[in-house]
TrEMBL record:
PANTHER family: COBW DOMAIN-CONTAINING PROTEIN (PTHR13748:SF62), COBW-RELATED (PTHR13748)
GO cellular component: cytoplasm
Protein's recorded name: Cobalamin synthesis protein
Gene source species: Herminiimonas arsenicoxydans
Catalytic activity line of the entry: GTP + H2O = GDP + phosphate + H(+)
Family classification: Belongs to the SIMIBI class G3E GTPase family. ZNG1 subfamily.
SMART domains, A to Z: CobW_C
Keywords: Chaperone, Hydrolase, Nucleotide-binding
The organism's taxonomic lineage, starting at the top: Bacteria, Pseudomonadati, Pseudomonadota, Betaproteobacteria, Burkholderiales
Residues of the CobW C-terminal domain: 254-348
Function per UniProt: Zinc chaperone that directly transfers zinc cofactor to target proteins, thereby activating them. Zinc is transferred from the CXCC motif in the GTPase domain to the zinc binding site in target proteins in a process requiring GTP hydrolysis.
Superkingdom of the organism of origin: Bacteria
Short name of any one Pfam family annotated for the protein: CobW_C
Length: 349
């Protein structure tokens, strides 16, 4: 059987990966795509955001980041998908892996070369990196992960160009071309891209990656020391509120916490609270998102943001037998979790 082309979709927190993936899944391109979703923070909100018509196979991996802690799970997910395809249980001709916003795409791509079982069935089609035109300058100044994601890309897609001036965009493009002169750059306005720009690119060139990192295919046991400086930092995940525990090793001080409630929110109180908290802590709020139960609403509300840019959408209807609740994930640097949790509790009906 021919190898299954796999796209590794990366980009910093909130860059627009899920938006792009949703577009890809909705386009009538004829590809049958299996998706592997990995999120930073133990709650998978993207699952609610991704449009699913039942034809895609979506595998969630939320208990760590696939570039480090759950790489074994990635191998299991890939080999299980291939087996089910061989058995005729699933039909797909392409896999898209959406990594966490903090993932180093290097070790993810490496899996396809060093794990024999994976290598039998799959090949890396391309590493596609979504770059948030509004926030990338700051992300590149501050986070190694953002630089690596651009450095490893075979194709770069600029999102949120609607939020910046032509001059700002030109400066950013110049900078990302300096980091990665090989990868073509194009724009993806709310994920709008031609399918030929994202699937079947055959853009992954091992020689390029070896030039970027001569130890690219080095033995796994050396990989953390050699590739993943961010993985040397201590665990920063914070899980107290959900009693869930897992470790993730990424940039110092970046932590995720979850708020959950089985009481509805009062819309005005919540709007006011979120508006004010974003004013104060926005610069440190790297990513936040949630699926909310609003008092009196018969549909879910999906809310999300990156720094000060926050928005909400009407989501799906609550199922008849679904118990209503809200869950929110906040990912940021040194965020005062207690202030957030207490404030949110005060917005409940
Ligand atoms: N203005 C603007 N907003 C965009 C664009 N693309 C995505 N967004 C918004 O950016 C926010 C984050 O988008 P997602 O697609 O969820 O980002 P992500 O990279 O999947 O985020 P994480 O996986 O949570 O890190 C959402 O509110 C999107 O609607 C764009 O081109 N312009």
């Amino acid at each position: 059987m021919a190898l299954i082309p796999t796209t590794i979709l990366t980009g910093f927190l909130g860059a627009g990966k899920t938006t792009l993936l949703n577009r890809i899944l909705q386009e009538p391109h004829g590809f049958k795509i299996a998706v592997i979703e990995n999120e930073f923070g133990q709650e998978n909100i993207d699952n609610e955001i991704l449009v699913q018509d039942g034809t895609e196979q979506i595998v969630e991996m939320n208990n760590g980041c696939i570039c480090c802690t759950v790489r074994g799970d990635l191998i299991v997910a890939l080999t299980a998908l291939a087996q089910r395809r061989r058995d005729g249980e699933l039909q797909f001709d392409h896999v898209v892996i959406e990594t966490t916003g903090l993932a180093n795409p290097g070790p993810v791509a490496q899996t396809f070369f060093i794990d024999e079982e994976v290598a039998i069935d799959y090949l890396v089609d391309a590493i596609i990196t979504v770059v948030d035109a509004k926030h990338a300058m700051h992300q590149l100044d501050t986070y190694e992960e953002a630089q690596r994601q651009i450095g490893f890309a075979d194709k770069l897609l600029l999102s949120k160009t609607d939020l910046v001036s032509a001059d700002e965009l030109a400066i950013l493009i110049e900078r990302i071309k300096r980091i990665n002169p090989r990868a073509p750059v194009s724009t993806a306005d709310f994920g709008r891209v031609a399918i030929a720009d994202v699937l079947d690119l055959r853009g992954f060139n091992l020689n390029d990656k070896l030039e970027l990192d001569p130890d690219f295919i080095a033995a796994q046991e050396h990989e953390h020391a050699q590739h993943d400086h961010a993985c040397e930092t201590h665990c920063t995940q914070d899980h107290e509120h959900t009693h869930d525990h897992h470790h993730s090793h990424h940039s110092d001080n970046i932590a995720a916490f979850v708020f959950k409630s089985e009481r509805p929110f009062n819309t005005e109180k919540l709007d006011e609270f979120l508006g004010s908290i974003v004013q104060v802590f926005g610069p440190r709020m790297l990513r936040y998102k949630g699926v909310l139960w609003m008092d009196g609403a018969d549909r879910k509300v999906v809310f999300q943001g990156v720094h000060q840019i926050m928005g909400s959408d009407i989501g799906g209807k609550w199922g008849e037998n679904e118990s209503r609740s809200s869950k929110m994930v906040f990912i940021g640097q040194n965020l005062p979790k207690e202030t957030f949790i207490l404030g949110l509790e005060q917005c409940l009906v």
